[in-house]
Write a structure and sequence with these properties.
Elements (H helix, E strand, L loop, with lengths): L6 H6 L3 E2 L2 H4 L3 H8 L3 E3 L5 E11 L26 E6 L3 E8 L6 E12 L1 H7 L13 H8 L18 E4 L25 E3 L10
Antiparallel strand pairs: 1-7, 2-3, 2-7, 3-6, 3-8, 4-5, 5-6
The protein binds a DNA duplex through strand 4, strand 5 and helix 5.
Length: 206
DNA sequence: TCTGCGATAATA
DNA sequence: ATTATCGCAGAC
């Protein structure tokens, strides 16, 4: 009989919540620092954030908020530390962390997670994923795997009272990263506002 | 592994 | 008409 340490249980002891001030900054800074943080959801599901994109409001023609507040993007103009969830291509939900000051309309799109716990629940939610690296390797995939839909638009990810929160297990973001081009956009394609953990197999595109 | 294409509906 | 995507088919 062998006694083994359980890495996730050990890590859980060191989970620290991210304060709202973490998000109350430029979305490009937040996008870098969200790398290697952990998104925790219901049913024991969690994943390490390995790919992000910053959207910069009125500065950014690719941002939903570029032309101002609408019914769809209202959450992005609200207080930081909440989740902006939107529907696209008639099929997919994608989620952003709201950043900056209220009314700035800036945020960070979560593009990929490395699944950590609750893999069975993720697989059940994404029966089309043939390999575990396909569970959360894209903005529409990770919402499916974590169970995020339009019902979650506006939830608070700082307090965790709505079932989702982002925490820090002490793993720092990679250092010295360069931004790369964002994916799937037509405008502002030259702005290097996508970041990912180098070499992680769950990143959506290399 | 990669490339191209159709699905599918809210938004502006 | 466009879209901050995904999964499948077919080529290699």
């Amino acid at each position: 009989m062998t006694v083994r340490y359980l890495p996730m249980d050990a890590r859980r002891l060191h989970f620290k919540p991210l304060p709202r001030a973490f998000y109350r900054r430029d979305s490009r800074a937040v996008a870098v620092e969200l790398l290697n943080k952990i998104l925790v959801g219901p049913d024991g599901r969690s994943g390490r954030i390995v790919e992000t994109e910053a959207y910069c409001g009125s500065l950014d023609p690719a941002a939903h908020t570029y032309r101002g507040k609408t019914a769809r993007n209202a959450t992005m103009f609200g207080p930081p530390g909440h989740l902006y969830v939107y529907f696209t291509y008639g099929m997919h939900w994608c989620c952003n962390t709201v950043c900056g000051e209220e009314d700035e309309g800036i945020g960070v799109l979560l593009r990929a997670l490395a699944p950590l716990t609750g893999l069975d629940a993720m697989r059940a939610a994404r029966s089309k994923a043939r390999r575990d690296r396909d569970l959360c390797s894209g903005p529409g995939r990770l919402t499916q795997a974590m169970g995020i839909t339009g019902e979650h638009d506006g939830i608070d990810i700082v307090t965790g009272r709505d079932g989702f929160r982002v925490v820090d297990d002490g793993t720092p973001p990679p250092r010295g990263l360069a931004g790369t081009g964002r994916i799937g956009i037509r405008h502002a394609v030259d702005e290097p506002w996508r970041w990912y953990v180098p070499g992680d197999p769950n990143v959506s595109r290399h």
